[in-house]
Design a protein that fits this description.
This protein is α/β, with parallel strands linked by helices and 195 residues long. The protein is built from 5 helices and 7 strands; from the N terminus they run αβββαβαβαββα. It has a domain of 136 residues: Glutaredoxin (3-Layer(aba) Sandwich), CATH 3.40.30. The N and C termini lie far apart (94 Å).
Length: 195
């Protein structure tokens, strides 16, 4: 005779049902995802956005009709040497991006004929939502998607909005990880255009 009470069971005595198997896989999957996010956070926590030095080069394919003062369907950053360049990472689902959109467009209209090029980089978005956003805020400067999220990692972006201003020699001179204002942009542009 066994000393084990037949009315008491533990998790190992329970028969494995499809429902309990699914629950175990879900718990295991959640733990794996959590560990993955933790590892990613530890890996990226010491990586910061560039605040000086050469700007990482990239080619941006622009949305049709959103060529701004670039005037062509794609642009390589290094082809803009000799001009001051603003790079703004944004997304249609980003509320702070919507807050800064009117200021970006106002600054673009003020500086587009003075040698400043604006490049909007739509991050983790779909084209329909992006186009609706651009239309809603009457954005006219050059904008395109970060295809296969290749540009964002070059700048080590941590979210949106993020704005970088590149000088005429191709160096990062201004970084802002939150919405920008016309006044902030004007101060940077005036300084860099005078150099």
């Amino acid at each position: 005779m066994s000393d084990i009470n037949p009315e008491v069971s533990n998790e190992f005595d329970e028969p494995v049902t499809p429902r309990s198997a699914v629950r175990r896989y879900l718990i295991f999957g959640a733990v794996v995802v959590f560990i993955g996010f933790l590892a990613w956070g530890l890996f990226t926590r010491n990586q910061t956005q560039p605040t000086s030095g050469p700007a990482p080069d990239f080619t941006l394919t622009l949305y049709d009709g959103y060529y701004g003062n670039v005037g062509q369907p794609s642009i390589k950053l290094s082809d803009l040497r000799g001009k001051v360049v603003l790079i703004n990472f944004w997304a249609s689902w980003c509320i702070p991006c919507a807050d800064e959109a009117p200021d970006l467009e106002a600054a673009y209209r003020q500086y587009k004929d003075r040698g400043v090029v604006f490049l909007g980089v739509d991050w983790l978005d779909n084209e329909a939502d992006a186009r609706n956003y651009l239309s809603k805020f009457s954005i006219t400067f050059a904008n395109g998607p970060d295809l296969q999220t290749k540009i964002g990692p070059l700048y080590r972006i941590s979210g949106v909005p993020e704005t970088y201003i590149i000088d005429k020699q191709g160096n990062v001179r201004f970084t802002k990880i939150s919405p920008v204002s016309v006044a902030e942009l004007a101060a940077q542009f005036e300084k860099l255009l005078a150099e």
